[in-house]
Amino acid sequence: MTEAPHILVVDDDARLRTLLSRFLAENGFRVTTAESAAEARDRLRFLNPDLMVLDVMMPGESGLGLTEALRRENRDLPVLLLTARDAPEDRISGFEAGADDYLAKGSDPRELVLRIRAMLRRSPAVVPSVPTGPVTLGEAEYDPDRGELRDRSGVVRLTGGEAALLTALARKPNEVLSREEIAAALGMDEAGERAIDVQVTRLRRKIEADPREPRFLHTVRGRGYVLKPGQ
Parallel, antiparallel, or unpaired for β 135-137 and 101-104? Predict the structure, then answer.
């Protein structure tokens, strides 16, 4: 029997932690909670959750700070930021920090469950398209069926969002995909479309020798993005 997905909920509001924990448990998830970034770090020393729901504004280290630190450590744990601030610039800041999704506090908790399930499904296996073989990106190779990027040093760690983005592009090499098409493949909403640029920037840092002069992941002005594999 497959074990239920394990969610780590991090929020300094005890009432909200309890409500989220109860609602997620009622919807089939295993839940662990933490009241601060420091406590979350302690939990992550011994646990390997499938996803983290993380409050942005907390005393001490913020959710953005913790997300950035996890990405610097090459931790690919999917992160959904939960915050009272929902302006477009706040969402972009969250994606720039390395978050995979962003939801405003006060949203219907059923939307949180839907977002979590979409993030957990966001893997190469669920990107709808015909299976293709690995693509060559200079000295690296990406296998979209396995969601695995390898270079001379071994496996390159990708976040769930980065792997899903690269898979969507690798499934249709040399074909321009619009932001709308990429967002749909990644299970993202309209706000996610605006964050595609941020995801592309992060991905270029991992596949391009010079992200400012990309060889493989190109911007097609007014249309979208295209992956051009090659040696």
Answer: unpaired
The whole-model pTM stands at 0.64
Is residue 132 domain-shared with residue 222, that is, in the same domain? yes
pLDDT tens for each residue of 131-158: 467 899 999 999 988 888 999 898 888 8
- CA–CA gap between residue 93 and residue 91 (Å, rounded): 5
- The rounded distance, in Å, linking the Cα atoms of 14 and 54 is 13
Residues 214 and 170 in one domain: yes
CATH number reported for the structural domain that contains residue 185 in this entry: 1.10.10.10
CB distance 158 to 151 below 8 Å: no
The dihedral of CA 56, 57, 61, 64: what is its sign?
positive
Instruction: Tell me the CB-side half-sphere exposure of residue 30, using CA atoms within 13 A.
Output: 9
Residue 15 lies in a domain: yes
Task: Record the tokens describing residue 213, joined without a space.
Answer: 């002069």
**For 3, which DSSP code?**
P
